[in-house]
Specification:
alpha/beta, Rossmann fold, five-stranded parallel sheet, about 60% helix, ATP-binding, AMP kinase activity
Length: about 190
């Protein structure tokens, strides 16, 4: 089974993906984690990623897709992948579909965690006040949220038209969101 967890930053995608890894033995394909791992590996691809990131540029679709493709055999052996943070654009969604089709697979389900932007912003502000983590800075979060709404949210109709989109209220507790995901997966 190939699953996309979809939603803005801080919607809980990573939390739910980790739970699915533990309960269903799926492989989480987090682009952020893969970029950091590629750099740490010292591979040729990792060196390319490091150079791009050091220049403050965005990693190209070509690189991100190569990282995903490199991890697909592991996900296939485990029985499924959870795509977390990918795809972010229509071009990436189309490339993912083509890549999976070439392997005799497809995206089975896209779970959109529906959340309220204002509530997310408050959540991040509270987290920042407690942790002081730079990535929880409300100003940085607003930039990330705006980028999501401009670039990634347009994927909603793409997956809805394909009949693969299921929406779950992401504002509930971790357990209630998890129960909604489990229910959706149980119906597949």
């Amino acid at each position: 089974m190939n699953l996309i967890l979809f939603g803005p930053p801080a919607a809980g995608k990573g939390t739910q993906a980790k739970r699915l890894v533990e309960t269903r033995n799926m492989v989480q394909l987090s682009t952020g984690d893969m970029l950091r791992a590629a750099i740490a590996s010292g591979s040729e691809l990792g060196k390319r990623v490091e150079g791009v990131m050091q220049r403050g540029e965005l990693v190209t679709d070509e690189i991100v897709i190569a990282l995903i493709e490199d991890r697909l055999p592991e996900a296939e052996a485990a029985g499924g992948a959870i795509f977390d943070g990918f795809p972010r654009t229509l071009a990436q969604a189309e490339a993912l579909d083509a890549m999976l089709k070439g392997r005799g697979a497809a995206i089975d389900l896209v779970i959109r965690l529906k959340v309220d932007d204002a509530a997310l912003t408050q959540r991040i502000a509270g987290r920042f006040a407690e942790s002081g983590r730079p990535d929880d800075n409300p100003d940085s979060f607003k930039v990330r949220l705006d980028a999501y709404n401009a670039q990634t949210a347009p994927l909603i109709p793409y997956y809805a038209d394909a009949g693969k989109l299921l929406e779950i209220d992401g504002m509930g507790s971790i357990d209630s969101v998890a129960a909604g995901i489990d229910d959706a997966l149980g119906r597949l």
